[in-house]
Write a structure and sequence with these properties.
Polar amino acid transport system substrate-binding protein, alpha/beta, Solute-binding_3/MltF_N, seven-stranded mixed beta sheet, 11 helices, signal, five-stranded mixed beta sheet, 308 residues, D-Maltodextrin-Binding Protein, domain 2, 2 domains
Amino acid sequence: MATRIQSRVAVATATAAALFMLAGCAAGADTDTSSSAEPTEGGMPLPEFSQELHDSLPAEIQESGVLRLATITLPPYSQKGEDGVTYEGINFDTVAAMEAALGIEIDLEVAPTSADIYTGFESDKYDAGISPLSDIPATQANYDFAVWIAEYVVFLQQKTADDKIEGLDDTCGHTIATLQGGTAQKVLEAQQAECDTPIDISLFADQDTAILAVKSGRADAAFSSQIPLTYYVSQDDTLEISGANSTDNGFPPFWVGAFAPKEAPIVPVLLDTFNALKDAGTYDFLLEKYGIEENAMDEFGFNLAEDE
């Protein structure tokens, strides 16, 4: 069952942005600007409302006043806070800033798995996803991407593991935990053809349970994006990362951000919105807040994956 929830920051920001939009329209003022509004209580700088961005939204979203986004539980992008109820993370901070720029409400729903996001597109439940789908040639065949964070795929193991998994060739004959419906699953399945002893691919709905499988010894390693796995290592000194910043783990250079089915008109708008966040200082703030400065992109892009 999916969870629909907004962060406290997002709710407050949406209200302020809506009031700003109404005031600007009433005065007939030029409200398009790249400067920043008042920061949040946590110090995150917010972009000013942009009439130009608002007007570029698809007509049905302008009419409803709601943009429907989906994500999955994947720290530090999206996870429950200390109260065990309220969601927080990069995605929720990003949504708060996007609401300010676009002047609409953003309904960010936490789906059980990535596969649920894909079926949600088919049933017109979501307008777009935000993280964690990777912009690589295989996914770009079906989805368009607005990307703003560089990523890698790595392995996570216990420090005391007897067999170290340093790359895909080491996965043969081992149990590897990964997310159901994710790109890493497809890479492991393709690797099977190279193995004399098959990989035991253990699929999980969320990263927490995948990591628990490694910690309990039910899996030899987890295989997933570097930013989330690095987060788990920072929380548990019995774990370690291997293959960091590598492009030899079955993935070409790739990026994450927002995505939607091919030709969806919302994706270029989301890219322009990300650029507004960068101009306002929101992007640099988020990179520093979550310790992912090395994953910064100098220029954001649309469908950056290329066939090798």
